[in-house]
């Protein structure tokens, strides 16, 4: 018998006379058919790309056998506990007749190891706005990966993805770079990057000569500004935003008003602008015109400096307008507009040599009026001195040195206006 089934054996005896007797033996079971193999269900934490990130155990579903019946179903190994790029398990099902069948399941990939990433140095770093630094390679050590392979790194400031510092705004940024492995596990490291403006306000605050008050244009009127220069409605200056410090000589009733008070045009005798001490790059001037032309010069690079700095940086010169005799100046005030004669005077209403070329003019510095003309240099020089003369009506201290603008001072104004603090800002 070589086929599966249940058999019985019948024995029959006969004599020579034709008599017979039959007898049937008991059952004989034959099972030569393999059982149906069982299966497994893996149990573990599934990451990404079919990689498990934990130990994997295998739950067995028994096989079946319709003849001799199921005896056992086993799996080997019963669990996988080490990282592997692909391991199989074998399920064996045996029936009661001893027939066995096996089946291989897998492969199963396991990577329980997180990637690594770290900063190159602790603490914050300060850069200038616009500086171009690849964030990942500049501030972070390269990520390391486990057996699942090379993953990806994403750097974010808040919810914004950043790759280069050139896109970062002025302020303090906590940049977090996250390495994500092929298995889906992650690691992060953070770096504080402080982005400062690509320009800086003067190192020394404008020095108000006695009699001048700080003013600012608020969009519709001049108001008294705050010398403490807080941000907001009463901010006095911000050279980085091309808002230069302004001051005014005003009539006596407005010399001690509160910050934020509107200063009417009629109360202003003269407008002044503060030119802070600076050094300028000279190597791109001359015939190159700072990268422009003789008719339209390019940007002049300027750095504000303190009076204590008397030796210029490499390739820079301290502008000579900030040296007055042996005194190093933190800056100086210049008229915001051209000087004019007093409103209603003959020189104002009918400018001519006979009406203007004398030393009796009362100078004012106001917008939208005729400039003071027809004067000799000596008379113009004497007229300018009246702003700080004894008993002047401007409220300006006699210790101030009011004078006709020198060529060097005009040059300092022109250079500053041709910088990022002026037209190139």
Helix tally? 5
Approximate strand percentage: 35-45%
Shape: rod-shaped
In which range does the helix fraction lie?
A: under 10%
- Weakly predicted, low-confidence segments: none
Structure description:
The chain is mostly beta strands and 425 residues long. It has five helices and 28 strands. The protein has helices at 135-139, 346-349, 353-356, 377-385, 407-417, and strands at 5-14, 20-30, 39-43, 51-52, 56-61, 70-76, 79-80, 84-95, 100-110, 116-119, 125-128, 140-144, 152-157, 160-161, 171-180, 186-196, 212-217, 222-224, 246-250, 268-276, 278-281, 302-304, 316-318, 323-324, 327-328, 331-335, 339-340, 364-365. The strands form nine sheets. It has a five-stranded mixed beta sheet with strand order 11-16-15-13-14. The longest helix has 11 residues, at 407-417. It is rod-shaped. The mean pLDDT is 93.
Write the layout of secondary structure elements.
Layout: E1 5-14, E2 20-30, E3 39-43, E4 51-52, E5 56-61, E6 70-76, E7 79-80, E8 84-95, E9 100-110, E10 116-119, E11 125-128, H1 135-139, E12 140-144, E13 152-157, E14 160-161, E15 171-180, E16 186-196, E17 212-217, E18 222-224, E19 246-250, E20 268-276, E21 278-281, E22 302-304, E23 316-318, E24 323-324, E25 327-328, E26 331-335, E27 339-340, H2 346-349, H3 353-356, E28 364-365, H4 377-385, H5 407-417
Parallel strand pairs: 4-9, 11-16
Antiparallel strand pairs: 1-2, 3-5, 5-7, 6-8, 8-9, 10-12, 13-14, 13-15, 15-16, 17-18, 17-19, 19-20, 20-26, 21-22, 21-23, 24-25, 27-28
